[in-house]
Amino acid sequence: MPMTMKNRIFRTAGIISILLIASIVFSSCSKTDDDKLVVGMELAYPPFETTDKDNKPTGISVDLAYSLGEALGREVVIENIAWTGLIPALETDKIDIIISSMTINDERKKTIDFSDPYASIGLALLIGNDSSVQTFEDLKEQGKILAVKKGTSGHIYAQEHLPEENIMVFDKESACVLEVIQGKADAFTYDQLTIYRQWMQNEDTTRVNLEPYQEAADFWGIGVNKDNPELTEEINAFISDFREDGGFNSLAEKYLKDEKDKFAELDIPFFFDIR
C-alpha cells in the first residue's frame, strides 16, 4: 500500500527521535562530566603518584589535583592509567587532564596542550657499583648499557644520543633498577628525585650521579585536551596563585624534605625552583 502523508510524518519523526537519543547517549559516553574533574595519572611513581596502604591515591600529584579541583569548584576523580595510555585517554575525552609528572616536549605538544610548567627537573644516573661508567658520555662506549623506562624523557634522550644497541627498554622503573643491581645494565636514567630515592634504597649495590646531564632541564606540566583552551587558562592561573601562596613549598616539606635538603647541600636546583 502507498504510504500516506501522515505515515511519512510519523516515520520521519520517529527517525529524528532515534537519532537525537543516539546523539545524547554518544555524547554522554565520550565526554567527561563538567561537574567533575577527571584526572589521569599512573599511580606507580612515589612520592608523586602512588597509593597508600588502603589502595587510595596519594602523593604530590594527588594533592596538587585536589587543590586544583578546589580552586575550580569541581569534584576530583582520579583515574589510574598506564603511562602509555594517558595521552590516548585525554585525546578521547576519557579524562579531563593529566597530572602524572609528565615532561613538556615538542612530540607530546603535537597531540595535547600543556599548562605552564609547575616543576623543573634534570635527568640523573643510578650506576652499578661494578660499572666503570661515571657520566652519561661514558654510556656511548661500545658495550655499555643504559636501562630506561619506556616513553619517559630518559628514554627519549637516550634514543637521540646513544647507539640503539646501548639501550635496554623496560615498562617499569623497578625492572630498570633491578638490571643495574644485577649488573646487566651499567646505569639507569630517570629524574633526579627518583634516582636519589632509588640510590637510598640500594646503597650497597649502586652509586649515583645527580648532576643533570641534558643541555637544558625538563619541565613538567599538566596535560590538557587541545579542544579545551579555557581549562588550560584556568589551570595556569591556579599554578601561579598556588606558587605565590607557598603551595609548592608545602608539598616539598610534606613529601620531599630530605631530598630538598640534599639538593641544597649539593647546590643543585630543586624540583619546584622555577623562576
Write a structural description.
With 275 residues, this protein is of the alpha/beta class. 40% of the residues lie in helices and 19% in strands. It is built from ten helices and 14 strands. The chain has helices at 5-30, 60-72, 86-91, 106-109, 153-161, 173-181, 192-201, 229-244, 247-255, 257-265; strands spanning 36-41, 50-51, 57-58, 75-80, 97-98, 113-114, 119-121, 123-128, 146-149, 167-170, 187-191, 206-209, 218-220, 223-224. The strands form four sheets. The protein has a five-stranded mixed beta sheet with strand order 4-1-5-14-6. The longest helix has 26 residues, at 5-30. The chain is globular.
Strands, helices and their partners?
Layout: H1 5-30, E1 36-41, E2 50-51, E3 57-58, H2 60-72, E4 75-80, H3 86-91, E5 97-98, H4 106-109, E6 113-114, E7 119-121, E8 123-128, E9 146-149, H5 153-161, E10 167-170, H6 173-181, E11 187-191, H7 192-201, E12 206-209, E13 218-220, E14 223-224, H8 229-244, H9 247-255, H10 257-265
Parallel strand pairs: 1-4, 1-5, 9-10, 9-11
Antiparallel strand pairs: 2-3, 5-14, 6-14, 7-13, 8-11, 8-12
Mean pLDDT: 88
**Number of discrete helical segments:** 10
Low-confidence stretches: 15-31
Strand order within the widest sheet?
4-1-5-14-6
CATH class of the largest domain: Alpha Beta
Q: Which geometry do the CA atoms define?
A: globular
Give me the CATH superfamily of the largest domain.
Answer: Periplasmic binding protein-like II
Order of helix and strand elements from N to C terminus: HEEEHEHEHEEEEHEHEHEEEHHH
Tally of DSSP β-strands: 14
Structural class: alpha/beta
CATH topology of the largest domain: D-Maltodextrin-Binding Protein, domain 2
Q: How many domains make up the coordinates?
A: 2
Q: Quote the beta fraction.
A: 15-25%
Largest sheet: 5 strands, mixed
Distance between the termini: 79 Å
Helix content: 40-55%
Q: How large is the radius of gyration?
A: 23 Å
CATH architecture of the largest domain: 3-Layer(aba) Sandwich
